[in-house]
Here is the input.
Amino acid sequence: MDNVAFPATLVDVRGTTLAVATGPPELAGQVPLAWRTMRLTVIGCAGSFPGPDSPASSYLVEADGFRMLLDLGNGALGVLQRHIGLFDIDAICLSHLHGDHCLDMASYWVARTYAPDGPKPMIPVYGPAGTSERRAGAQGRSIAREMSPAFAFETLTPGASRIGPFEITVDHMNHPVETFAFRLEQGGRALAYSADTGESAALVRLARGADLLLCEASFAAVALSPPGWPSSPGRPGSPGRPGPLAGPPHSPNPPDLHLTGRQAGQHAARAAVGELVLTHLVAWNDRASTLAEAASAFGGPVSLAASGRIFDLDGPGNVFHTTS
Here is the structure.
């Protein structure tokens, strides 16, 4: 794909206009990617299930012509095609095997296997132990056995490795299933992604000094009942009012599962990152409150992820945002 794009404005974190790029309209929201830049595009940032304005978790990271996905949750494959071609992915990393982070792997297997001009070349997929079996189970094991594989599966373990142009470090997070956070380094720039986690010293170590931390903030400070959730025995709370999903009224969020906005901010502050972007945003939470919580704990730039937002890491300490 040529590095030309739909008219868009490149601005820095203070809102200063830096450049304007033009190009064909079929890739709305894009600007040219400089060879020296690591680019993060938010494909999906909804927590636990797709929201009305975003698929579930998926993030496109590009550098030196190499394109890698961090997670491919439900709904993400369609939105991905607004930004790059369907078969332009060079590698996929899956943080864990909850559906909102990996279910569209089944759809992508179909696309790569049944492409009109024949199956596409195998690409590597890095994930926790059992990733291959989970993908096959979602698609149907009998079909998966009959067709040549679309993916070469590699099992993640804590430590450092290289994928394409990226030096990648992964570590276990604090979540009910095996879950990995990622640190991607390239050309003096560093991006950290928390995946799903409760409070975690490992996340602070992994994100230390990163230019940008993409951190989950799934929980509200006071647990809320989902919209329409009835107030009845065993279902405390009422729509839009404080009340946990289970347990006595005003019980705290479950431990070792997710972070609040404040906790995300605290992790960013401890890690001394350059910028914090909150993601895995659950539809029924108040996003303004989540953002305010994080800002109260982290003194640097902080914002909410949104499907289609682009961040260019253009040298240590420089994070530019593109907006369409």
